Amino acid sequence: MVIGIKDALKFIGISIVVCCAAFVCTLFLSYDLDLNSLENIPDAAMPLYNAQLSMGKAIAAISGCGLALTSVVLLVFYLKNYIDAHGRELGILKAIGYSRFSVAKHFWIFGLSVFFGTAIGFVAAYLYMPTFYRVQNADGILPEMAVHFHFELPIYLIVLPTLAFAGLAVLYAIWKLKAPVLNLLRGNCTKAIKAHKEKDESFLKGLRSATLKSKKLLIFLIAFSAFCFSSMVQMSLSMSDLASETFAWIILMIGLILAFMTLLMSLSSVVKGNAKTIAMMRIFGYEDSVCSDRILGAYRPFSYIGFVVGTIYQFALLKLMLGVFFADVEIPAYTFDWKALIIAAIAFVALYEFILFLYAKRIKKLSLRSVMEE
Amino acid sequence: MIAAKEICKYYGSGANRQEVLKSVELNVSDGKFVVILGASGSGKSTLLNVLSGLERADSGSVLYDGTDISRFSDSELTRFRKAQVGFIFQQYYLLPHLSVEKNVRMGADLAGNKNYAEVIEAVGLAEKCKKYPSELSGGEQQRVAIARALAKKPKVLFCDEPTGALDEATGRQILDCISKLQRSSGVTVIMVTHNQNIADMADTVVRLNSGTVLEVQHNNEQKSAYEIGW
Q: What ipTM, to 2 d.p.?
């Protein structure tokens, strides 16, 4: 069979995202369960106790759901690319008589990327938990808590996601393999390009809009990576008065990992998907800087939109969480942190342009001969 | 005038090193239709790539009116291709998400050619300029590739097996189209093929075997695409 463990390892992006999700969820759900089992809470500590309980659930739910949805999008994206890249092998299998299901069932193996990611995240959370509990116990307001192992957590956070993602991979493959054998063999299992009214514009302007229209999911992913960076970095910078330093670090690291993963994956896909276009442009005499600007630069506005949405989201989320969960607890008033915005914006622009520069270099190194011979 | 002097090209290294071009010498006069003829693996496509500046020779030089392009940097080669050459490939390599018109403008915009519509009309696709490559037949797609190459007003047009993916009747139409446009625009055409009969259409035929030029033949009379066998 054409699909093996080696292919599942290529889905490392999903493993990293689900690892973050499992880490956060394990940490906060375990903390929540241990908090729930506390007895003899002093009356004075009740508002903080209730706030901590609600916040633990909210963080696990928001980050868990957000990261799980991201993983689903990434899985579909990876699978689509995988089927497009291996259309010929899959087409041959179909041509010699394998049924759609008999080919698609082997896609379960991509669920392993979720298994590895969630398992690592789960173990990492338990390794980090003693430090996390020590920090939470340090203020001495609530009774001292110890780390307990909760058997239901690995089922909810490792086994079920693995089964769900393996099933999703098989179902998606069944649906995608509906494409006629000849289309798969020709490496063209995508839909025919829909005719639309083209503007009377230059080739380069037309190329920019065609690049964007050809892979709309990439627009979402690039905007999403900016959103993650913007919201998580600003949140971690502006919550220093509201939460522990450890918590701010967790948020920062998750934001950076998510932003890097989605951005690198999206830009790699842009370069790979447009390799032939770039090669033709270079053969005709378009300069490397023009090629990279038109192909990669097309996504820049969407990354800035993602950044702005992330800024609004993190402000609204913090305001809401403090208003709802910590209404009865005395904490400093939360206002918009302009300093955090400026730092995050400068860091984002520098990072984004640096990654774009690296990919522009990669475009320059594309061998015309190898691209045309593919 | 294009002059190739002692071109050598190798692929692979160590025990797998293979000499693809062996001291190839070739002269092409302006405005001529040159066919490089050879069997599969004879080195004809590599020679075309080296002559057009797509690949560098390991030794030897390629002179365009006395200027050696083999010493050019990557950016100088890009400028050279922009100003001097056009390409037609066997697999067309049209941009699938752009219409016929936009594909042709890829070449036209580089040369600042505002009259690209005339070229589309010349290849007989005026009616289909808003269509996408997937909506065209193989022959029509190759005509778009011809229009795209000619719209940038190249001095030399390189064609790598332009009829290789087409049936006989469509292949003849494409050859006829290239030949007519070559005569009307005066562009130099260097075409690589394994089809012996296409050689009868050319001014000059270069026979290549295992990376060596066997023979350079000059035809006094050129046949049309409809007179040659297939």
A: 0.83
